[in-house]
Amino acid sequence: YDLSDSQRRLDRLHQSLEAIRYRPPRLDPPPAGELPIMIGNGGDRKPPEMVARHADIWMDFKAPETVGAYNRELNSACELIGRDPRSIERGIAVSPEDISKTQEFLDAGCTLFMVRTAGPRFDLSFLGEWTGWRDTLNGWQPVDNIR
Predict the structure, then answer these.
(1) Cα 147 from Cα 142, distance rounded (Å)
(2) CA distance 29 to 104
(3) What stretches of the chain show up as alpha helix (H) in DSSP?
């Protein structure tokens, strides 16, 4: 693993984020609304300072304890630059097997769940249980006879 190559990619990402954040308002015509920036922590670990400065959404793919530790670092980085840490949506990509870890991800600070599955046969039957959990958590009641 070449650390210098990883650093070069992170440097290029930082430069690109500057352009992405400040270019859209100057487009003609400009975007119809705010374009959120999502930064993922899949391969190279993104510095919390970079995420704090640029991201609207942070997405990870790791275990709850790893995600929780990064979230604490990200909160500190936000506070250092005067940004409200709650202004960054904290996402986690989960597989069907992760439904048993949902509370752990919530406790780790995750507020956005992206469910991932793979083909060629896409079994989404677990989504009923997952959305039922979400609805219960949010205090939503099932609606009968929607018209």
Answers:
(1) 14
(2) 44
(3) 3-22, 48-54, 64-81, 102-107, 127-137
Rounded to two decimals, the pTM is 0.79
In single-letter form, the type of residue at position 37 comes to: I
Q: Around Cβ 58, how many Cβ atoms within 10 Å?
A: 27
The DSSP string of 40-71 is E-SSSPPPHHHHHHH-SEEEE-S-HHHHHHHH
Answer positive or negative: Cα dihedral of 53, 115, 35, 42: positive
The answer to whether the CB of 75 falls within 8 A of the CB of 85 is: yes
Confidence of residue 142 (pLDDT cuts 50, 70, 90): low
Tens digits of residue pLDDT in 82-124: 999 999 999 999 888 887 898 999 999 999 998 888 778 888 8
Closest alpha carbon to 95 in 124, 69, 138: 124
Distance CA 83, CA 54 (A): 11
pLDDT at 135 over 60: yes
Q: Check whether 77 has a pLDDT greater than 90.
A: yes
